[in-house]
Amino acid sequence: MKSNELYEKAKKVSENAYAPYSNYKVGAALRTKNGKIFTGCNVENSSYGLTNCAERNAIFKAISEGESEFEEMIIYVKSGNIPTPCGACRQVISEFSDDMKISMFSGSKGIESSIRELLPLKFKA
Ligand code: THU
User: Fold this and answer.
1) How would you classify the pairing of strands 70-77 and 27-32?
2) Is the pTM of this model over 0.90?
3) 125 lies in a domain?
4) Which of 3, 28, 67, 103 has the most crowded Cβ, counting Cβ within 10 A?
C-alpha cells in the first residue's frame, strides 16, 4: 500500500514542521502525474489562524512550479492521531484532482482513501 519513496519523503519533511504551539508535526509528499514529487510541512504562527497545513503547502509549491496534475499524496505524522486532512485542505486538494489517492500515516500505521471519499459533494461554483 505505501509507495516507499513518497512515504520516506513525507516522513523526512515532517521533521521540518514549524509546530511549537501544537507540537503536531505533519509532512505531506505529493506525486504529480509526470512523476515529480513536492513536499510540504505545517507552518504555525503565534497568531494561530495564520497556520498553514502541510498538505496545502505541498500543493502550493507544486502549483508555483507549474505542476497541477496530481496522482497521489502521503500525509505523515510520527505518532498520535492519523492525519486526515482538514476541511480546508480537502477543498484545496479537490480543486486540482478528483481521483487523487491519499494515504495517511501515524508512524507505520496507515489508512488509504481518495479525495472523492474525503470530500463528497464538494463545493464548485
Ligand atoms: N495540520 C496539518 O498540517 N494538516 C492537516 O490536515 C490538519 C492539521 C496542522 C495544522 C497545525 O499546525 C497542526 O496540524 C495542529 O492542528
Assistant:
1) antiparallel
2) yes
3) no
4) 28
Catalytic residue among 55, 67, 72, 95: 55
For residue 32, with 0-12 CB atoms within 10 Å meaning exposed, 13-18 middle and 19 or more buried, which class applies? middle
SS3 40: strand
Annotated active-site residue 55? The verdict is yes
Name residues contacting ligand 1 (CB within 6 A).
19, 22, 24, 26, 42, 44, 51, 53-55, 83, 85-86, 89
Distance 67 CA to ligand 1 centre (A): 23
Ligand 1 centre from 58 Cα, in Å?
13
* 36 within a domain of the structure (yes/no): yes
Residues 16-40 pLDDT 10s:
999 999 999 999 999 999 999 999 9
Range of the domain at 93: 4-118
CA 3 / ligand 1 centre spacing (Å): 22
pLDDT of residue 2 exceeding 60: no
The overall longest dimension of the chain from CA atoms, in Å, is 38
Query: 112 pairs with which residues across the strands?
Result: 103
